[in-house]
Specification:
19% strand; alpha+beta; 5 strands; 4 helices; five-stranded antiparallel β-sheet
């Protein structure tokens, strides 16, 4: 009887852990290039480059924004009050490209609001992180 109980408890634990992992995993990375979104992000390109940002991902679950920088990944909450969006911004020395599988002319305003809110926040966060990393590496705490 105890063997069955132990098996049941282990099985429930595995199901629970699998469920929690599935809930916290972001959806797929957007792959459809959107020239209109790229144009919206272009005014922030120089500041993103100066902050060492190579990409920004906004997931459709509305939870987090992931920013990849020269000093690693930075995460922040998606701003409250904004409609959910899903896009990925890629920055290199010459261009800014934005991909989204859910963007269309009908939701353009919510994407514009997200870009105008998220990008200044990630630039600020990346710059603050750069200062922290520099101070930690060179002992200027």
């Amino acid at each position: 009887m105890n063997a069955h109980r132990g098996f049941f408890i282990r099985a429930c634990f595995i199901v629970f852990v699998s469920f929690m992992a599935a809930c916290s995993t972001p959806g797929p990375v957007p792959a459809t290039t959107q020239p209109a979104l790229s144009a919206m992000a272009r005014p922030y390109a120089d500041e993103m480059r100066k902050a060492g940002i190579s990409s920004v991902q906004v997931f459709d679950n509305g939870g987090r924004v992931r920013t990849s920088t020269n000093f690693g990944e930075i995460y922040m909450r998606y701003p409250a009050g904004l409609s959910p969006t899903s896009f990925a911004i890629y920055v290199d020395g010459a261009a800014v490209e934005v991909d989204s599988d859910t963007y269309n002319g009908g939701n353009s305003a919510q994407y514009e609001a997200a870009i105008k809110t998220v990008l200044p926040a990630v630039i600020k966060s990346a710059n603050e992180n750069n200062v922290r990393v520099f101070n930690n590496r060179f002992g200027k705490n």
